[in-house]
Design brief:
By secondary structure, this protein is of the alpha+beta class. The strands form three sheets. Strands 1, 2, 3, 4, 5, 6, 7, 8, 9, 10, 11, 12 and 13 form a 13-stranded mixed β-sheet that branches. The model is unreliable at 409-414 (pLDDT under 50).
């Protein structure tokens, strides 16, 4: 019996090739899109599961409501040893900080390395990073011991065993004590080398007292410990040691390791591979939308075509077929179609995976034979096949043979047309929502890329303060300025675009209220900084090399700092950052968006910094003539090589730095474009099938109308008019849903593109035009057919 059902189903599909092809292709594309996104979501949710103690590893994060901190990863250096000693629930602790960009040398090989971590020795006991060589427990015993990755070992030592050999790190001789295997693709912490915490004073300017939140602290809890109550205990440890921030409101809490990857925070380490929970939710919704559009398409075409087979059902019942047998026949055809679509979808996934990896910035290679994937695939197959076959199986199998054979049954009558109308409206509503989202994210991305930042970023070259640049900065600056293609030279203590180092120091100023506190971004700069970047001074003056006191006793605040301080007429008033450093406010600069538009502009304190004491995060900014960039770069390189015989020359244009800030927005925009386009394509395939079905069902009517004088245009309008009405109804549903959803998503940005009427009109108009072209062409073809053939049609 099963073989008979299968054979009948196959004959039906072969008989209606176009219908079957439209149905299968649409569903296959939807399934492929859904699978690709679900693979990505599965990957994002699966980070850090490979650690043996993953369930007992937690990170301490800091909350400070008054300052807007919510899960900030920074903690003071003394916190880890203190809580390990004072709280019996904690088995081990390890601190982590990121190294600055460092120059490594071995023989003639010299490279920059920017993925380095400073960790406690217990780091390799808490985390399961397997060693290829060396002993994890002893690898970081000494202050100049290093652990390097397999990739880094091959780069410097080739096939030689590196354990016990030396690497020159910024002029210091360090010994390789271990080689760790390259981290798996789903590791949040990603590093090429690790140094002991004892090395921190040598190669890092990070402060390590109770008031400096410069480190990430990881804990390994003892078996059976409930982490819920540990946050207040850790906060109490901070209070007992008089941490200034804890005394003023910071509260600690524990965050499970499994949540670290998707926790988007205002401060990020360069060695962390971070995702965003909002993106996971967003892309999951997109996957569901596309799959629903494809499934609705499939069900709609299945219900439309099944009504044509009413006479077949009547005949089968007349010769003795039971309702159950007929229902199984329809379910069998449905599952056959869904199975074929799924096989095509798997082929599409394999073909599209490299492109999707480039789009998402991932290196996914999913295993299609995994048990969880096979279980999920089976669930999709069963649900889709069941839903698609439900209407014909239950409704058509219940027809009375005498009514069908006497033609008193109207094919497709009853609930069929109403169901198709609802499904088409719902399907296109989802597609239009995705199209509107595409336009909004494209506008948001373009707005952030093109909005005035408040300063000039074009034709400015950034070169790092490496090797001899800092200690010879005055000479370097003078040499750079000698070339006519160089317009200005200045410097900043770190990249303002990529970092924001706030200090909650003991700031004091003229007119401060006794209980008033503020944290400011320390923005150390060189003379000429405001002039080179064309920053606007609203009050007072800029720093001047002609005034010796400006190098130590002058400060410039931005508007946001003045606003938060509540100071009136600030220019000329005294300001101090500590008891040892008190000076005068000489100017107020207009707010500038130094960081991504995801963040509000920080309150900033500008001061002159001595570049000789700047660490590796310092940057020299060289403003060049845009028409003579090649000459300028050649000169900059020659100056670099004159002062730095060891460190390789590197540079980056400032506008490139800002482009990097919006890579995630660009990817979101591209994903929206790709899947919204595919969603509309699937919808148009469905309309094509429905229009074909409508034209076929009304073939005789079309012939009679033509004989009576109806024009092809009028007949085409008759066929496509109803479908057009459904698409217009879809817009009425889609617009309010898209408005509320996108308005919520855009709240993540401090600067948001406006949701104007055109944002909704243009995508809807585009979808309408595409649908009209899809349906109209087929309708016109049917209207132009020979009326004689139409009248002969059975």
């Amino acid at each position: 019996m099963f073989g008979s059902h299968l054979k009948t189903a196959w004959r039906n599909l072969v008989k209606h090739k176009v219908f079957a092809a439209i149905n299968v292709i649409g569903l296959a594309i939807g399934l492929a899109c859904c699978l690709l996104i679900l693979f990505w979501v599965q990957g994002e949710l699966g980070y850090d599961r490979f650690h043996a103690n993953a369930g007992r590893i937690f990170r301490i994060v800091s909350d400070w409501t008054e300052k807007g901190w919510d899960g900030v990863e920074g903690t003071p250096a003394p916190l880890a040893p203190a809580v390990e000693k004072e709280l019996p629930e904690i088995e081990k602790t390890a601190r982590l900080a990121a190294h600055n960009r460092l120059v490594f040398r071995h023989g003639e090989k010299a490279f920059y390395e920017d993925r380095g971590v400073i960790v406690d020795p217990a780091f390799f006991e808490i985390f399961s990073f397997p060693f290829a060589a060396g002993n994890p427990r002893e690898a970081l015993a000494g202050p100049y011991d290093l652990v390097i990755s397999e990739t880094m070992a091959a780069k410097y030592f080739g096939t030689e065993d590196p354990v016990g050999l030396t690497l020159d790190v910024e002029g210091r001789s360090c010994v390789v004590r271990g080689v760790v295997k390259d981290q798996p693709g789903r590791s949040t912490i990603r590093f090429d080398f690790a140094s002991s915490f004892a090395f921190i004073d040598q190669l890092s300017g990070l402060s390590s007292h109770w008031g400096a939140f410069n480190f990430t602290t990881y804990l390994l809890l003892k078996e059976g410990v409930d982490p819920a109550g540990l946050g207040p205990k850790i906060t109490q440890v901070g209070l007992s040691h008089k941490s200034p921030q804890v005394e003023r409101g910071v509260r600690f809490r524990l965050q499970p390791l499994a949540r670290v990857h998707l926790d988007a925070r205002p401060f990020e380490l360069a060695v962390m591979d971070l995702g965003d929970a909002k993106s996971v939710y967003l892309f999951s919704v997109i996957a569901v939308f596309v799959l629903v559009v494809a499934c609705v398409n499939f069900v709609n075409l299945a219900t439309a075509r099944s009504s044509v087979r009413a006479r077949e059902v009547g005949l089968r019942k007349t010769i003795g077929a039971g309702r159950g047998e007929i229902a199984r026949q329809f379910f069998g055809e449905s599952f056959l179609l869904v199975g074929g679509a799924f096989l095509i979808a798997l082929i599409l996934v394999r073909l599209l995976l490299p492109s999707f990896n480039r789009l998402a910035g991932k290196t996914m290679s999913p295993n299609l034979l995994r048990l969880d994937f096979l279980a999920g695939a089976a669930a999709v197959l069963v649900v889709t096949g069941f839903v698609a076959g439900l209407y014909p199986a239950l409704v058509l199998s219940g027809f009375t043979p005498v009514h069908v054979l006497r033609r008193t049954f109207a094919a497709g009558g009853g609930k069929g047309p109403a169901l198709r109308k609802i499904l088409v409206v719902f399907q296109f509503a989802l597609s239009i929502i995705l199209l509107i989202g595409t336009v909004v994210f494209a506008r948001q991305y373009r707005a952030m890329r093109t909005k005035d930042l408040g300063f000039t970023k074009d034709n400015i070259v950034q070169i790092p303060v490496k090797e001899n640049i800092g200690k010879n900065y005055p000479a370097v600056k003078a040499r750079l300025n000698r070339h006519p293609a160089v317009l200005a030279v200045t410097a900043e203590l770190y990249s303002f675009a990529e970092n924001s180092y706030r200090s909650a120091g003991n700031f004091d100023w003229e007119g401060r209220a006794p209980d008033q506190n503020i944290d400011l971004v320390y923005a150390g700069v060189d003379f000429g900084f405001f002039e080179a970047l064309d920053l606007t001074l609203l009050e007072g003056r800029s720093f001047s090399e002609d005034r010796a006191a400006d190098a130590r006793e002058a400060y410039i605040l931005n508007e946001e700092a003045v606003r938060r301080m509540g100071i009136q007429d600030p220019v000329g008033k005294w300001f101090s950052v500590s008891k040892e450093r008190k000076g005068t406010i000489i100017g107020v600069v207009k707010n500038a968006q130094f960081r991504s538009f995801r963040f509000k502009e920080d309150p900033r304190l500008f001061y002159i910094t001595e570049m000789g004491s700047a660490d590796d995060m310092g940057l020299v900014l060289v403003k060049v003539d845009g028409s003579r960039i090649r000459e300028a770069m050649s000169h900059i390189r020659s100056v670099w090589e004159e002062f730095n015989p060891i460190s390789p020359f590197e540079y980056r244009f400032l506008d490139e730095t800002y482009d990097r800030l919006y890579r995630s927005e660009l990817r979101t925009n591209l994903v929206f474009q790709a899947f919204a386009g595919l969603s509309v394509f699937i919808g148009c395939l469905g309309l094509l099938g429905l229009a074909s079905f409508t034209a076929e069902r009304r073939t005789k009517e079309i012939g009679i109308r033509k004989i009576l004088g109806a024009s092809p245009r009028r007949i085409a309008a008759l066929i496509s008019g109803q479908l057009t009405t459904w698409i217009l109804a879809a817009n009425v549903i889609a617009w309010p849903v898209a408005y509320f959803a996108l308005n919520k998503l855009l709240q993540a940005y401090t600067y948001r593109a406006s949701l104007t009427a055109w944002v909704f009109i243009l995508p809807s108009l585009g979808a309408f035009v595409l649908a009209e072209l899809t349906v109209g062409g087929l309708s016109l073809k049917a209207a132009q057919a020979d009326p004689r053939k139409s009248l002969w049609h059975e």
